[in-house]
């Protein structure tokens, strides 16, 4: 999305900015929110009863995540209908004439950012609530690092955005930096540990390693055991996928 923000304004790029920026963040943080919410509900229910909580199956998780993303889709569609994307001239002063997207003037971009910011706040709360859950279950430590850092980035971005209404260059540069930092933090914190194990310690990318981690944590009930089994299966499938992907890239580079 950063390339769209810095590209030459025209109806297509302006529309892609309005619709795509918020959508990308919504997909990312809706997925994290769905995962942390699932784990939090399972462990909360496990302390009270052995009954399996509702809506924790993969199909239910896809539905919940899709519902969260659909809200951003609705916001983007309504915004495009009410404010069609166009490029307009902007005169910062007599000697500085710029061509900008209409949404860059004023505070229109916050329409697309408001919902992702809400998701970031909720994800941060869930990251705090699940920080003590064993790492073998839900990667809570890495999710926490991701959300704490992302929260700080957006906490710095919002006041800068509102105080640079008359300096479009600074505003757009700040937006690009915030988008790039948020994406980089999510990639590094969520996937670097996986790649580290896959590439440097493949002996740990087995079920026995996960089972060893389980033996170090207190015994839980059957609902907890079920979520651990499902999480391990998902992690193994994702690890194998990345392993095949990187082997393919290495072969192409030879």
Key words describing this protein structure:
two-stranded antiparallel sheet; mainly alpha
Description of the molecule:
Mean pLDDT is 78; it is low at 208-250. This protein has 254 residues and is mainly alpha-helical. Helix 2 (11-46) packs antiparallel against helix 3 (58-82). It is 74% helix and 5% strand. The chain contains nine helices and two strands, in the order H-H-H-E-E-H-H-H-H-H-H. It has one domain (2-253). Strands 1-2 form a two-stranded antiparallel ribbon.
Give the arrangement of secondary structure elements.
Elements (H helix, E strand, L loop, with lengths): L1 H5 L4 H36 L11 H25 L4 E7 L2 E6 L7 H21 L5 H4 L1 H24 L4 H33 L6 H9 L6 H32 L1
Helix pairs in contact: 2-3, 2-4, 2-9, 3-4, 4-6, 6-7, 7-9
In short:
By secondary structure, the protein is mainly alpha-helical. The protein is built from nine helices and two strands. GO terms for molecular function: G protein-coupled receptor activity.
């Amino acid at each position: 999305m950063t390339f769209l923000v810095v590209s030459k304004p025209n109806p297509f790029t302006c529309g892609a900015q309005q619709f795509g920026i918020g959508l990308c963040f919504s997909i990312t943080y809706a997925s994290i929110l769905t995962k942390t919410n699932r784990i939090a509900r399972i462990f909360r229910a496990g302390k009270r009863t052995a009954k399996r909580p509702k809506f924790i199956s993969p199909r239910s998780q896809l539905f919940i995540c899709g519902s969260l993303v659909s809200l951003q889709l609705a916001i983007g569609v309504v915004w495009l209908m009410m404010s069609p994307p166009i490029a307009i001239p902007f005169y910062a002063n007599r000697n500085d004439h710029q061509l900008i997207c209409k949404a860059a003037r004023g505070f229109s971009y916050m329409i697309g950012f408001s919902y992702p910011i809400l998701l970031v706040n909720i994800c941060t709360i869930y990251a705090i609530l699940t920080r003590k859950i064993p790492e073998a279950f839900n990667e809570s430590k890495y999710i926490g690092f991701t959300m704490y850092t992302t929260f700080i980035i957006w906490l710095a971005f919002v006041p800068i955005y509102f105080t640079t209404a008359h300096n479009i260059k600074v505003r757009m540069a700040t937006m690009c930096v915030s988008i790039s930092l948020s994406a980089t933090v999510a990639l590094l914190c969520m996937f670097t540990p996986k790649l580290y194990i896959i590439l440097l310690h493949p002996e740990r990318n087995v079920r026995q390693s996960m089972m060893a981690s389980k033996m170090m944590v207190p015994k839980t009930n059957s609902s907890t055991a079920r979520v651990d089994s499902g999480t391990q299966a998902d992690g193994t499938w994702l690890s194998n996928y990345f392993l095949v992907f990187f082997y393919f890239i290495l072969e192409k580079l030879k």
